[in-house]
């Protein structure tokens, strides 16, 4: 084993180690250093001197020995040396309460009699500050803000032996930012806050506060954008600088007033026709207001006011889009609700009313702006007629006749309702139809028509219409007379009423039939001594005829459908009155009188023939009336012969008659007119 080493010196520079120096031992390859404190024992193997034993306790007295080592073994421990470890370094707690100071504190170090703390700028500029103290804290003041400082501290014992030192880098907190400026974006309701960079500041915090509301923005640059600001708000803006030492004081507050909020409680009304009143609630921080009104035809107007209402001219049938903005120095308020207001549609123009019948009027008008529907109302009489349609025409029916009406047309829109104050159009319906009460005959061709007058200031026209033509009469009262109506005709009689308002519907027609016409021609022909044939022309309108021959001696009648009749029982030589009744199929009759008729004289009786000579003959007879002259006619194949007696005689002679012939002899009264009678009895003479 090698020789025992000899310690030259042993000392402690660190609180956890002791350094030992010794003279080298020949043949030794390693050395074992040992430090013993009571039961505590620490060894360390080193190659050569000096060597250090670590892992020791600070401020503790140790016995230090050294042994040499080689391949042969270990030497005995050297004579010990007593060495005490130095004091432990204080554990620092450092902060910068302000930008110009650093506060240093530490825990008490056992066995320490005092402490020494020094401070220098880390960049080497400036002088070092050093303080000795027996306390466990101190403060360095008058420092540069935002600057990195190096702090070194150690404790010493009662002998003035310094212990371990510790080093701590601490930056002072920055100064409050200056030259703070706020740029407000009114459209986005955000603000950009900027300031001068502060020495030593690593980050910044912008605080925007209003009452209980507080917004923050953190950044490492010299500006920051604060979003989501409220309109109509006043904010206090401050900036605080930060670094690892802490924060600066807040900068001087800058006031920020945002744009006003969009006006609310906006109301729109027409306080009078043609004028819109727009009003709204007052807005905080607003200096003045601008109202924009744009009509649906593109025209826009505006109103600038410091009050809370504006008036605008308006037209009927337009839709107006209304926006209200508030302004202050910060700018324009955000866009609020856009209101639309539709004015009542215009009153229809080109208003016309035309009667299509007595109780129906067709109303037309020009289309108007803003109208979705039209309502036509006719008020008058005991009620009103109503018509609603989207078309610009309406037909009002079932109106009361002879009644004045006020017709108004209102236009409607879904948004605003009805137009108002539309002027009515006054019209009057045509007269009511008259009702014929009675038709009476005033004469042969005169008819009186009576009706119920049911109109005021109306003229009535009565018309008789038939195949024979038209006949009229006019009156403003309740009757009129139709004259010169032809006989034997059928008519339909109706009446209408006329007034300046128009013409009524015709009344119900009443049938009228005039009496048949009397035949123009009537001829009587005596067929036999007791039979007469009567014939006549057709009487218009007649269906049957009743003829009568009447004399004091008797009457002969005949009722027939024909235009002729044979009447028997006629007395010869008698004067008759002739009458005829033309009767229609409904029983109307016309009594017709004609010139009297005289029947032929009676044929003589007792005719006898006497031969006068071979070529002559005398004819005798008995005359019923000695005042009547008779004649005798002799007709044969060889000739016709006649004779007429002298007045008062009842015989006459015919001479120069050819012999050897058969003759027919007739004695007949002699009449002043017409042919000889052929119906008297004949005698045969041979």
Automatic annotation (TrEMBL):
<feature type="domain" description="Fibronectin type-III">
    <location>
        <begin position="1"/>
        <end position="88"/>
    </location>
</feature>
<dbReference type="InterPro" id="IPR036116">
    <property type="entry name" value="FN3_sf"/>
</dbReference>
<feature type="domain" description="Fibronectin type-III">
    <location>
        <begin position="430"/>
        <end position="517"/>
    </location>
</feature>
<feature type="domain" description="Fibronectin type-III">
    <location>
        <begin position="176"/>
        <end position="261"/>
    </location>
</feature>
<dbReference type="InterPro" id="IPR013783">
    <property type="entry name" value="Ig-like_fold"/>
</dbReference>
<dbReference type="InterPro" id="IPR003961">
    <property type="entry name" value="FN3_dom"/>
</dbReference>
<feature type="domain" description="Fibronectin type-III">
    <location>
        <begin position="262"/>
        <end position="346"/>
    </location>
</feature>
<feature type="domain" description="Fibronectin type-III">
    <location>
        <begin position="89"/>
        <end position="175"/>
    </location>
</feature>
<protein>
    <submittedName>
        <fullName>FNDC7 protein</fullName>
    </submittedName>
</protein>
<dbReference type="Pfam" id="PF00041">
    <property type="entry name" value="fn3"/>
</dbReference>
